[in-house]
Every structure is written in structure tokens, then in C-alpha cells.
Design brief:
- The protein has 340 residues and is an alpha/beta fold.
- It folds into 2 domains: 210 residues, Alpha-Beta Barrel (TIM Barrel), CATH 3.20.20.140; 80 residues.
- Helix content is 44%, strand content 18%.
- The protein contains 11 helices and 11 strands.
- It is globular, with a radius of gyration of 21 Å.
- 42% of the residues are buried.
């Protein structure tokens, strides 16, 4: 009997140590340094989250590692990394979500900003020159610029099978299907793509260890584990209201001459360069958007668009898989050895 109890205790201790080694990471996050986005004729800040606040939120959520990947910018990531140095429970990786001529790619472990607008091949080369990792965000999205089948032609370390900003029933499921179809070829990642506190924390990537270097090793050895679910559409609508309200505050301060320019802060620079008339018009338009019927209609429109889009894309689900099989069967893919 004593021997049985000893074995149980040993197993409990062993499992406890194993659990202690499992890290929690978000490899795709945005701050106020991500600049402006567009929706039709509207322009709005992509995020109003301060880099320091992002680190605090990640620590509260039990994250060991976060990757700050602003749009075409690394300034916010460096601020977040510097701020995190005072803590011993979290690492910040310098990243960037770069817009290429072929779609977006995330570079991780960067040392400096990468200019957008180049080809995907040129951008991958620059990421490698900096000693970085290449990750395809939302590769099969039908509503944001993913790399799609281009991922099979480039030197890619991993791609997102679960992007938190894609609650539709096509984008993530198709990515997961590709990952399952060619196991061990890329690291499988789950990232929030959060631009706001309302879409953060729903999904993450687990890895063995707890540091940035542990995450790097896990990605390179294809031993990452995607976890969680996509953020709800309501979270996206709350994000839109947050950035509209945040943008209004910045424009009001700019109108009063109390918004000083900051180095590498594209959002503030753009607002300060706007005419007073455009600022006033934007503030009025923002107030109209925040009025309850408009936000309700935005939720309804988003839900309808994603549902219809996913339904349309799923009609060709199997055909697209077959075409990808043919594509892979007739090419040599750098870094993935898909042909065996």
C-alpha cells in the first residue's frame, strides 16, 4: 500500500513539473503604433492600446511571452519590450506585421523596422537577415489580405490555424485542414490578432518552456500547440467603438493644440497633419457611429457579411484542397520539403 501511495505522489510531482514547463504565448498583437485602418469612406485608428497597457494585460492573463506585431512598424514593440524588462514573468518579442505586394506576413525576433510594399520573397529575405522567424497570419482569410497559396512558395516557419479576429466558419478551419494535411511541415499557431482589450485572451499558443527563446525553439521544432477560440463578433464591435472613441479624444486634443508629435507615432502624426475641418467632421462622424442604433447595425452587418462569405467560400472547400495538393505535388517548397 505504501508503495502505491509513493508512486501516486511521484506521478503528481512529475505532472506538476511538466505543467510548470508549459508556456502561454500570443504571437500577434497590436498597439496604438499600428496606425490607421479604413472601412469604406471611414478612417479609424487600428488600435488605441498603449504598449505598456498591453504588457500589463498579458501579465494579468498569465501570458509568459507576447509578440507585438504592429502594422508596418516596430516602435511600439520596442517600447513594450523596454517596459517589460522590469518584470521577471513575461518576455516581449519584437515583431511586425508587414504588408507586402502579396499579402501580410509577420516577422518575429526582429531588430529593426521592415518597409512595407516589397514582394513577399524580398520581405522574407529581410526577416531572415535580421535572424527572424516568418509567420503567415490569417493565411486563408477572405476579408483581410492573407498570403493564401503563396505560403507554399516561401521559406515559412509557421502559420496561424486560429486567428482570433476570424470568427467565420471558413478562414481558420481551412488553415487547420491544411496543417492537418501536411503535418510537421510548419509550426501551428493560435494568435489573437488583438487590437483591443475586448478581443484579447480568447486564444493563445502553448509551448514547452516560458521564455522568448523557448518559444523560438518550439516554433522551429514545430512543437507549438494552438489553444482557445476566436473572439466573438461582439468583441470586434466593442473594439471598433473603442478606437472610434479613442480617435475622437486624440482629434479633440489636436484641435486644442495639446497633442504633441511623438517619434515614429504614425497615428498622432497623421491626426496633427489633418485640417481642423477634417478633425471636426471626424468627431461628428464618430459620435454618429457610437449612437446605439448604428453600433447595433454594425454588429448585424458584420455577422451577415462573415456568414455569407464563409458559406460562399465553403462551396469550393474540397476543390481548393485538391488544387493545393496538385500545386504542392509539382513544386519544391523552400524550408518545408513538402515533396518528401
Amino acid at each position: 500500500m505504501a508503495g502505491a501511495w509513493s508512486a501516486i505522489i511521484i506521478n503528481i510531482v512529475f505532472l506538476s513539473k511538466v505543467m510548470d514547463r508549459i508556456g502561454k504565448a500570443d504571437t500577434h498583437l497590436h498597439t496604438e503604433y499600428s496606425g490607421f485602418g479604413t472601412l469604406g469612406f471611414l478612417r479609424f485608428p487600428e488600435s488605441v492600446t498603449k504598449p505598456q497597457s498591453l504588457v500589463d494585460r498579458a501579465r494579468d492573463g498569465g501570458f509568459n511571452v507576447i509578440c507585438v506585431t504592429d502594422h508596418n512598424e516596430t516602435a511600439g514593440a520596442f517600447i513594450a519590450q523596454k517596459y517589460a524588462e522590469q518584470f521577471d514573468d513575461i518576455d516581449v518579442i519584437i515583431g511586425e506585421e508587414v504588408m507586402t505586394s502579396d499579402g501580410e506576413i509577420v516577422g518575429l525576433f526582429l531588430t529593426e523596422k521592415i518597409q512595407p510594399g516589397q514582394t513577399i520573397e524580398e520581405t522574407v529575405d529581410i526577416i531572415r537577415e535580421q535572424g527572424g522567424l516568418t509567420i503567415a497570419p490569417h493565411p486563408f482569410s477572405f476579408h483581410v489580405p492573407g498570403l493564401k497559396e503563396k505560403i507554399f512558395e516561401i521559406d515559412l516557419d509557421g502559420f496561424e490555424v486560429l486567428n482570433g479576429g476570424h470568427p467565420d466558419k471558413y478562414s481558420n478551419p481551412f488553415a487547420q485542414t491544411i496543417m492537418d494535411r501536411y503535418p510537421g511541415k510548419w509550426a501551428s499557431l493560435s494568435a489573437s490578432d488583438a487590437h483591443s482589450k475586448y478581443t484579447f485572451g480568447y486564444n493563445w499558443t502553448e509551448f514547452e518552456g516560458s521564455t522568448a527563446e523557448d518559444l523560438r525553439r518550439a516554433i522551429l521544432s514545430k512543437k507549438t500547440v494552438p489553444k482557445g477560440v476566436a473572439a466573438p463578433i461582439l468583441g470586434a464591435v466593442q473594439w471598433s467603438m473603442e478606437v472610434v472613441m479613442g480617435g475622437q479624444k486624440l482629434m479633440y486634443r489636436s484641435l486644442r493644440g495639446k497633442l504633441p508629435n511623438r517619434e515614429d507615432h504614425f497615428l498622432i502624426g497623421t491626426i496633427n497633419n489633418m485640417s481642423d475641418l477634417k478633425k471636426a467632421t471626424a468627431i461628428i462622424g464618430g459620435l454618429m457611429y457610437l449612437f446605439p442604433p448604428t453600433s447595433f447595425l454594425a454588429t448585424l452587418a458584420s455577422t451577415t457579411y462573415l456568414r455569407r462569405g464563409a458559406k460562399r467560400m465553403r462551396r469550393d472547400f474540397e476543390q481548393r484542397l485538391e488544387e493545393i495538393d496538385d500545386l504542392i505535388g509539382n513544386m519544391d517548397v523552400p524550408g518545408t520539403s513538402l515533396k518528401g
